[in-house]
Amino acid sequence: MTAGVNKASEDSARLEREARAWLRRLRTTTVTQVDAEAFKRWRATSERHAHAFVEAQRAWDDLSPVLSRLHQSAQREASQRPKSDVSLARRAWLGGAVSAVAAAGAAFVWPPMGLWPSAHERAADFRTVAGEQRQIAMTDAVNVEMNTMTAVSRQTVNGVTVGIELVSGEAAIDIHAQTAGFSVLSQGAKTIASAGRFQVRHTGDKTCVSCVAGTLAVYHPTGKRVLGAGQMLEYASDAIGTAKAVDVAALSAWRSGVLVFRRTPLSEVIAEINRYRPGRVVLVKQDVGAREMSGRFDIRLLDVVLEQIQRTYDLDARRLPGGVLLLG
Length: 328
Description:
By secondary structure, the protein is of the alpha+beta class. The protein has three domains: 2-120; 124-251, Jelly Rolls, CATH 2.60.120; 257-327, Phage tail protein beta-alpha-beta fold (3-Layer(bab) Sandwich). It is 38% helix and 33% strand. It is built from eight helices and 19 strands. It has helices at 2-28, 33-43, 47-80, 86-109, 119-122, 248-251, 266-276, 302-312; strands at residues 126-127, 134-137, 142-146, 151-157, 160-175, 182-186, 189-193, 196-203, 206-213, 215-220, 223-228, 231-236, 239-240, 244-245, 258-265, 280-283, 292-298, 317-320, 324-327. The strands form three sheets. Strands 1, 2, 3, 4, 5, 6, 7, 8, 9, 10, 11, 12, 13 and 14 form a 14-stranded mixed beta sheet that branches. Strands 16-19-18 form a three-stranded mixed beta sheet. A two-stranded antiparallel ribbon has the order 15-17. The chain is globular, with a radius of gyration of 22 Å. It starts with a helix and ends with a strand. Residues 17-58 form the FecR N-terminal domain. InterPro entries: FecR (IPR006860), FecR_N (IPR032623), Ferrdict_sens_TM (IPR012373).
């Protein structure tokens, strides 16, 4: 029994080391196609591999602010000491170097403001850019429709496609004929259905699964959930919610080129528009972010929607390079 526990502990430690190594490699080097393919193979080895990488990403997220604070502390210390203090200068330089590496790595793996795809998204098999939608026949029985700014990779067993990994974004899965089960891996959890239609959305630090038709099961490290038509749930890498009723027509409206908002806070409306529009809209006047907005809008006419928001909430607009729009 002890030998088995020790073996499991050693395997977990090995996966953690490998995940951190991949994160460093993706963060600090120029990623080649060979690197990307090797990373995809490693990540697809098992759910434990995928989960280990998610945990490594989370650890880096937690570490980055600490490194930044250390760098700021070193700068303050340097400004208060004589410039002739060589040892202090060295410490300050080291602090700056660590912070610079951290900032460069974070920008590479998690781009600022989402202005370009991350390393993980670039390594995906299929990817859409802002405003693009794409349909893919994954198997004879399964069609996957990718929404804007979405990255997915095939999951195969013995050369046969059995599912996808949703790296980021949103995908709708239509199963036209009874199958042994088609799965969607996201944040270390797996959603499986044998028939019907469902959607999976992974933005930020949460994944949302909604069942449009049929039934499905979500297998999360903390437990299993079963959803029926008209139900959805959300989960993070360390916790899973419970099923609740949802308006699947509104959730699926993007497939018809429409965005539907029902008493949605303006900050969330802006965040959603940012997924479909190149560049980035920044709500500078944050006190209006909680005000609610309702409506149905054509995805192709989002600039018209932004003009309407500007007038309705009496906001000034300032355009910057790279498609950045400041509203305040």
